[in-house]
Amino acid sequence: MTRRLAWALPPVVLLAAASLYPLVLVLRQSFQPDTGGTSLKPYTDVFVSGAFREALWTTVWLALAATACCLVLGFFLALVIAFVPFPGAKAVARFVDVFLSFPSFLITLALLFLYGNVGVANGMWSEVTGAASGPFDFLTTPWGVLLAEVTYFTPFVMRPLLAAFSGLDPAQTEVAASLGARPARIVRQVILPEALPALAAGGGLVLVLALNEFGIVLFTGAKGVTTLPTLIYGKAILESDYPGACVVAVVNVLVSVGLYALYRMVSRRAGA
Description:
Elements: H1 2-29, H2 41-47, H3 50-83, H4 89-99, H5 104-115, H6 120-129, H7 142-166, H8 170-178, H9 183-211, H10 215-220, H11 228-238, H12 242-269
Helix pairs in contact: 1-12, 2-12, 3-7, 3-9, 4-7, 5-7, 7-9, 8-9, 9-12, 11-12
C-alpha cells in the first residue's frame, strides 16, 4: 500500500501544481477588489452587470444548440459513412481524424472566405446581379457563430460513433433486415442503442468545448456576440479589471461543470 501511494503521489502533485493551484489563485483574486482587502464587491459588480447576464445566456444557449446540432448531424454523417457503401468512404473516415487536429480559427477563416462580406459567395452574387454587396452577412451574428461551432465540433461526435459502429456485428442488421425491418427501424432499434454511449461521450465533449470556445467567436468578428470567455478577455486585457475577470472565470468553470454533470445524469438515465 505504501509503495502504491508513493507511485501515485508525484502525478497528484504535478496535477495540483499545474491545474488546481492556478484555479485557487483565480478564486482568491475574485475576492480581492482593486481597492484592497477581501470582499464580495467584485461579485456584486459583475452580477448586476447587464453585459454579464447577456454573456451568460449567450454562452449557455450557443453551447446547448451546438451540442444538439452536432449530435444530430454527427450521427447522420457517421451512419452514412459506416453503413452506406460509396467510393471513398474510408478516405472520408480518415479525413475525420485529420479534421480533429485543425485549430478552430482555421475553420472560421474558411467560412469567412466562403461567406464573408468579401467572400466567394458574395462575390459571385455581385458578379451575377451587379449589386454592390451580397446577401450573405450572417457570420457576424449568433447564427454565424453557431454554424462555425457546428462545423468544427461535429467530427468530435463522429469519431466515437465511427468507432462504435466498427464494433457492431453486421449480423444484427442483416437479421433485422431479413425479418422485414425497414432501414429506419433498424437504425432506431438496432444501431441507435449501440451508439448511445458514443453519442454521450461525443456530446459531453462538445458541450464542454463549446462552453469554453474563444477562437471561433473572436475570429468571426461577431461584435454583438459576447460569451463568458470573450468577456473574461475583455475585462482582463481591455479593461484591466482582473478581479472582475476572475469572477467571470469562476462562473464559467461552475457553469461548465454544472452543465456537464447534468448532461452525464441525463445520459445515465437514458441508458448511455
